[in-house]
């Protein structure tokens, strides 16, 4: 693996495009493309900026010499693992809360579902802190792109149903009026889309 391969690998691990990398280090996208295709080599000042941005040593970029890591760093893991764990917990919490409420129709079903989701989010938060820096930011973006749909579902429909129909259902009441489905559904979509757009706008920076 040469310097062009290492730059490309680090960029992909960070989950950014050539244009995004170019914006971060103050060069053109064509310059990054030439680096990765072995048509040119970054100047030394760009090597330094790249090493700081990717949180690696200049020796690694130039020669492929890995930094000697402490036991603590070796114990770090990929943040995407915790995205998967949290998503599974959040999905289980949503299904459990809705299914249990359907059977018992008690608010406690929703509380237990939300507790399961809270455990999932906590596992992701703690795991993300102890994961490798290169995977932390892109994993966080993927976490919100997926989990906002799971996390906001029950609270939106629960609050709307409590306010306008007097029931604690955590999902749309299909047998009720059309507005009891359309209005909270629209609110739910707006919240999810707003969070997704916010996450994507941060990714572009």
UniProtKB/TrEMBL annotation:
UniProt cross-references to InterPro entries, sorted A to Z: Cro/C1-type_HTH, Lambda_DNA-bd_dom_sf
Signal peptide positions on this chain: none
Coiled-coil ranges per UniProt: none
Membrane-spanning residues: 79-102, 108-130, 142-161, 173-197
Domain HTH cro/C1-type residue range list: 7-61
Superkingdom of this protein's organism: Bacteria
Matching SUPFAM superfamilies: lambda repressor-like DNA-binding domains
Classification via Pfam families: HTH_3
Alphabetized UniProt keyword annotations: DNA-binding, Membrane, Transmembrane, Transmembrane helix
Protein name per Swiss-Prot or TrEMBL: Transcriptional regulator with XRE-family HTH domain
